[in-house]
Amino acid sequence: METKDINTTDAPVKGKKNTRFIILFIVLVLVGGTYGIIKYLHSLKHEETDDAQIDANISPVIPRVSGYISEVRVQDNQHVKKGDTLVILDDRDYKIALDQAKAALAAAQSDAQIAHAGIPVTNANIVTSEANINTVDAQIEAAKVNVWRTQQDFARYENLIKDHTVTQQQYEQALAAKQTAERQLQVLEAQKTSASRQSSAVASQKAVTVGQVAASKANVERAQAAVEAAALNMSYTVITAAIDGQVSSVNLQPGQFLQAGQALFNIIPNQNKWVIANFKETQLTKMKLGQKVSIKVDAYPGKELEGKLTSFSPITGAKAALLPPDNSSGNFVKVVQRLPVKIEFTDTTGEIYKKLRAGMNVLVDVHLQ
């Protein structure tokens, strides 16, 4: 009797447990099925990924000249405006170089003035030489006439002396006059040759002077360029901000030596930010430019920002890697690739947008329809 009572008591309890389990199982199936249906319907109109970050432009601060730091005027995470002084280098060496360039320019300008001053003198010498040549030419013409006349007189006296019509003295005088005229013509022709050579020398001197003027002008221009270059280098000793933004960590100290082209720190403009989301290649089928995107930032849960899809990367992330995978080795394993997609914010005036920083993780949801 006792055994029968125990079995009778356990049967209703076991039935109740089975009923509860069945009910719980049905509820779980309904909840899971409902969630699955909701996710499936959502996936038909949305594409999501949490492989996404905030991105922004980064402007590196790079000195254009080498030198020792004289003063650092910026601190970590400080906001700066375009043109603000960030770092000042010791400019004493560059001032000396500028003074030397100015002295070289003054010397070149002095040489140019001397070269220009020689042109009027050379021109005057050319005019004098040409006048001398013209004078000698006139004298030569007169001497030729005199030679012709004396030759004619000598020819007549030479005929008359044979008939003893003239005296020996008259004949000798006519001969002497002819020889004197011929000698004078020779002297004048020699003078013309000398004057022509002198004129050629003066012309050559003018060419040299003109060349000196051109060379002096080039020297002045070169010296002027050296002065401008020295002044420009000295201006580079004051390093200023190229854009508005917020500086990164500034690890600089006065007295530290900087090399030209050395990256010092960065300036990040907070006004222009966007999202780079890495979607699987299988998610890109229905994605198009201009589609609406919902953006949730991990740092601000419960807040949702709106954006739009603006561009697709021309290559996948793996292809752009420093060491891209080589699938031609023979051991090929197909891996789903991810393609970077740029998403721009629609509202850039909100408080959350202003708090965003490059590198923050976000969850993006692209509305396909």
Please specify the SSE layout and strand pairing:
Blueprint: H1 2-45, E1 46-56, E2 59-61, E3 67-72, E4 79-80, E5 85-89, H2 92-162, H3 168-235, E6 238-240, E7 245-247, E8 257-258, E9 265-268, E10 273-280, E11 292-297, E12 304-312, E13 338-345, H4 351-355, E14 361-367
Antiparallel strand pairs: 1-10, 1-14, 2-9, 3-5, 3-8, 4-7, 5-6, 7-9, 10-13, 11-12, 11-14, 12-13
Q: What's the architecture of the largest domain in CATH terms?
A: Orthogonal Bundle
- Number of helices, counting only DSSP H or I runs of 4 residues or more: 4
Span between N and C termini?
A: 73 Å
**Helix content estimate:** 40-55%
| Tally of individual domains | 3
Main features:
single chain; 369 residues; Elongation Factor Tu (Ef-tu), domain 3; Helix Hairpins; 3 domains; 4-stranded antiparallel β-sheet; 4 helices; 14 strands; disordered N terminus
Can you give me a brief rundown of this structure?
The chain has 369 residues and is an alpha+beta fold. It has helices spanning 2-45, 92-162, 168-235, 351-355; strands at 46-56, 59-61, 67-72, 79-80, 85-89, 238-240, 245-247, 257-258, 265-268, 273-280, 292-297, 304-312, 338-345, 361-367. The chain has a 6-stranded antiparallel barrel. Strands 2-9-7-4 form a 4-stranded antiparallel sheet, with no helix packed on it.
Structural write-up:
The protein has 4 helices and 14 strands. With 369 residues, it is α+β, with helices and mostly antiparallel strands. The chain has 3 domains: 46-59 and 267-367, Beta Barrel (Elongation Factor Tu (Ef-tu), domain 3); 63-86 and 239-262, no CATH class; 92-235, Helix Hairpins (Orthogonal Bundle). The strands form 3 sheets. It has a 6-stranded antiparallel beta barrel. Strand 11 and strand 12 (304-312) form a beta hairpin. The longest helix is centred in the middle third of the chain and has 71 residues, at 92-162. The protein is rod-shaped and about 195 Å long. Mean pLDDT is 82; it is low at 1-6.
